[in-house]
Amino acid sequence: MRRLSPLTIFVLSAFGWIVALTALWSQVSAWTSYPVGVLSHVALEQSAPMWVRQVHLSSGNMEVDTAISVPTADGRRGEITVDASPARYAYGLPIFIALVLAARGRGRLGRVAAGYALLLPFQAFSLTMSALMQMVLAAQADIRLLRVSQWQMEAIVYGYQLGSLVLPTLVPILLWLWMDRKFVNDVLIRSWRESLPPAASSS
Known about the structure:
Blueprint: H1 6-32, H2 34-47, E1 52-58, E2 61-71, E3 77-84, H3 92-103, H4 108-138, H5 143-146, H6 150-179, H7 181-195, H8 198-202
Antiparallel strand pairs: 1-2, 2-3
Helix pairs in contact: 1-3, 2-4, 3-4, 3-6, 4-6
């Protein structure tokens, strides 16, 4: 029976850890993601004081009371409130931990703790842009109502796309590649090169 390569063992182990840790994370994400809400709270009040009146943060939810006034069904005007979940863009944490555990080696606990802290700003960015995008949509992207310029509106749209589509999955992987680069070079890349045909591996 052919022995599995280190690369195959890593892939299978990482997949198993991701499934197990994602299931666990879904049960505790309201608490592990609370610091994300704290950072986003500060970012919203500092970056958009003309929109944000007050931010209410609780376990699993962030509610933003805004100063953006929109027409209501009865012809009046009312200020909108947006809700966001701090855990919505924090699912990269179990991915990062799974990669660290699959790589094995010493100092895993320290890398997990450092990775958790380093991921928080990126997760807070995603949450902040999501809240800002909700405000823009609620105001129907009316620049005069929002009191912003066109480039600021476009920056929010691009920031939302980056924060929702790219950062949540890309940053954990890049962070792991950087923190476990010795394992990547010594084990994964070497195993991949050995699996190539002689002509391909020598080129």
